[in-house]
Amino acid sequence: MTVNSISGGKTSAYISARYSADLEIFALVRTSDPSCLYPDRGIRQEVEDRLQMPFIGTLEDDTIIETIFDLEQYIGREIKWVSGETFDDVISNKGGYLPNKVARYCTTYLQTFPIAGYLHEHRLNPVTMRFGFRANEMNRARTMDSKRNENGVVEVKIPVGRHDNGNIKWETVEYQKPEYPLIEDVIYRDTIEEYWNGKPVKFAKHNNCVGCWWRPGVMLNTLNKKHPNKMEWFAKQEEQTGNRFKTETTYRKIIERKLQIQLFEDDFNECDSGYCGI
Questions:
Q1: Which stretches of 19-112 are DSSP H helices?
Q2: Domains within the chain, CATH numbers bracketed
Q3: pLDDT tens sequence across 219-249
Q4: Backbone dihedral region of 89: left (phi > 0), alpha (psi from -120 to 50 degrees) or beta?
């Protein structure tokens, strides 16, 4: 079985458009913070219907919701929506320990667990999963390949319920066999950008969480002007837990920094955008 895991960015959308799969799946990062409320009540209800769970808002650019609906219409195939715990609950259940560049557990809890759990629940794994590594990203493919077991499959340990004492029950499952169609077909970013030019799919300038700590502070400061409520969420997480996402500074300092020059989103490349999506 082939699976396209869609992040909401142009690269994974390109794979979905050009390489049809048995299953198109999207993992939505949710928050329970009402200050990040998605503005359209009707769309909120539609997202809840897709997920079969409450939806208040996302910590990504709200445009990602439009992206997935637009993409589904464009490719003419259903996209399955999944989601795990809210980001708020993930942090709370980890004892207030914030994810960071060294311990990036958020990607696992917010994206891998929901997708792998869905596949396991429906007895679909292991699957062949397409990754959006472009032709110049061979190192990322080699890193992924290093995780394969003797059967060529990447395993993952996922929660599958709870024991009688309330502790989480974990199970190691064969998750997916990675495939890299863009590397095989020598596809670079310029081809992807050209493909989406004029197409009826709306994309955010940057996908992944607005406050992703992989992004440099100057970029986070710039994004704060567009998403102040979401950047405030990240600052409050640090203040409430007493921990930091970045070791060198706090999000409050990033938000309050007065830039001496005007920066634009085009000043940053994809490597500044975080690595959660593909």
A1: 41-51, 63-75, 87-93, 105-107
A2: 2-196 (3.40.50), 217-272 (no CATH)
A3: 999 999 999 999 999 999 999 999 999 999 9
A4: alpha
